[in-house]
Amino acid sequence: MNDLARLTQSIRQSIGLAHKRDIAAVTNMLPLPKGAIRLGDDCASIPDRDGFLLFATEGFLNEFVATQPWFAGYCGVMVNVSDIYAMGGRPIAVVDAIWSDSEQQARPVLEGMVAASEIYRVPIVGGHSNLRNDRSQLSVAILGRANKLLSSFAAKAGQKLLAAVDLRGHFREPHAWWDASTGSPPERLREDLELLPQLAETGLCASAKDISMAGMVGTVLMLLECSGLGGVIDVNAIPRPPGIPLEPWLCCFPSYGFVLSAEGRHTGAIIEHFSRRGISCAVIGETDTSDRLKLADADKEELLWDLHASPLTGCGPKFKQGV
After folding, report:
1. Smallest Cα–Cα separation from 213: which of 254, 163, 274, 266?
2. Domain of 94?
3. 145 near 51, Cβ under 8 Å?
């Protein structure tokens, strides 16, 4: 088995993609919304006057909350904020639901939330608390608003796939989390996120997705599924920090990372848009009509996923949708 085949197999079998496959099982058990609201984007986008209300939530694994309570609280705000910006919006406020067995156990979780709330200037305006539970648990929801959307459903065949990632960070060992947020200048973090709604509002891009725990490749796969497309990714073109091996990088969660699909004539302006802020951005592939995502390396290609044969989240137009 060559290196590209091993990399492809490892990504296909990753826990991040396994978690995303669970989405299909859940959505199949729920009545789906009808009309303009579709499942599969980073946020629910609800038409409102001349724009969109954005609504999202994140829940966290018990082990993460128990072993990394401060960072779990911080991520509760950070990842929700990222989801709002990934859709071309700006956050308004968050609410949280926290369970623990004591005030002492809840404190570091809440302190992490407060720190991120202040850094990203997104107020915590309410929620639910229970300090008499048998373990720590956390979920956080967010409300935002967009003038124009960046959507996973808006990619078109023949467009270029891009990745924009802040490489000025470090792994929070031993976890697959690339932290480019904690310890960074708050104003810079906020202004870097503002790049996303600017792309939407200037018309340079209409399709994007926040890189999730599925990793960069898995996130591209989810975007392609929502748009009913396939594509090819050149693994050698992916922005990567010096000295970081390719496999863990492709499977990690970066605190600032987005994949985009855009017309080729706009890629130079998009790359410059991020580069001015010190964000690494590059064309990493192209979309097509194959329903398959392939990884490429020099003169080799390997099939990562056939969406026609095996849906990932089941949220694309060729699968169940409330329309």
Report:
1. 254
2. 44-146
3. yes
